[in-house]
Specification:
With 233 residues, this protein is an alpha+beta fold. The protein folds into two domains: 76 residues, Glutaredoxin, CATH 3.40.30.10; 132 residues, Glutathione S-transferase Yfyf (Class Pi), Chain A, domain 2, CATH 1.20.1050. Helices cover 51% and strands 9% of the residues. Strands 2-1-3-4 form a four-stranded mixed beta sheet, covered by helices on one side. α1 packs parallel to α2 and α1 packs across α8. The longest helix has 32 residues. The N and C termini lie far apart (35 Å).
């Protein structure tokens, strides 16, 4: 039986969640047959009897796991003969864990303050009241107020990506010669604005574009085939 990946979806079946993309890339890298099941924010609680409140969730036979980091560790342990996401190196696993935390701080959080209203605009109408209420409570202001300074914030966001540009100066991938989990973490973070925001998040001459283009082309171009909203590749 195929693995099932419960995946967050917006309008036009846009699969926009970075957290879910990490898992999707992980399944593709390992060559594990799987199907993705689109879900709305407001239907996550129905997946496994209210046990899990966030996506991604996978089911593999009788096993159900949520949280992308728990999932990647499960896949490595359950399928040791399939290509490893960490090249079977503890050091790469530690680097990945660091990068996931870094990307949350340096990419996802600043980006959210730039694109949160664009995300809202592209959610299924059923999800909109839930998304607005929970995010406005979290930030203590309206979605419209959160994105008030988004023009200035885009510049700041772009310069925050410099560590990635420096790392990619002398290698093709963040992981070295081939894409591994560190590359999927960052590519997943960029799939989010790519599918949900018309803003120009990366300049057309940004050196990161070369790497991102390669990431989009992997696995028969699964990334590049996704609906694209932003100005860019
Ligand atoms: N650390 C978790 C984060 C998962 C997460 O926050 N997922 C979001 C989707 S991108 C979610 O399901 N949020 C549910 C909600 O906001 O109600 C992971 O890596 O899986």
């Amino acid at each position: 039986m195929s693995i099932k990946l419960y995946d967050l979806a917006g309008i036009d079946d846009r699969r926009f969640s970075s957290n879910c993309w990490r898992t999707r890339f992980a399944l593709l890298h390992k060559g594990l047959p799987h199907i993705t099941v689109p879900k709305l924010f407001t239907s996550i609680h129905k997946i496994s009897g209210d046990n899990h409140r966030t996506l991604p969730i996978i089911t593999d036979g009788k096993t159900t796991i949520s949280d992308s980091w728990a999932i990647v560790n499960y896949l490595e342990a359950a399928y040791p003969h399939k290509p490893s996401l960490f090249d079977k190196q503890d050091s790469l696993k530690s680097y990945s864990e660091f990068l996931q935390h870094w990307s949350l701080k340096a990419i996802s959080f600043p980006l959210l303050q730039i694109i949160i209203k664009d995300i809202y605009d592209r959610l299924d109408p059923i999800d909109k009241p839930y998304f607005r209420a929970t995010r406005e409570k979290r930030f203590g202001k309206t979605l419209e107020d959160i994105v008030k300074n988004s023009e200035d914030n885009v510049e700041q966001f772009r310069s925050g990506l410099n560590p990635l540009r420096v790392s990619l100066k002398h290698r093709n991938f963040l992981s070295g010669k081939k894409p591994l989990y560190p590359d999927y973490i960052i590519a997943a973070a960029l799939m989010w604005p790519r599918s949900m925001s018309p803003k120009q998040i990366l300049h057309e001459d940004d050196t990161l574009n070369t790497w991102f283009k390669t990431m989009l082309s992997l696995y028969e171009g699964i990334g590049s085939k996704q609906p694209k909203e932003w100005v860019g590749i």
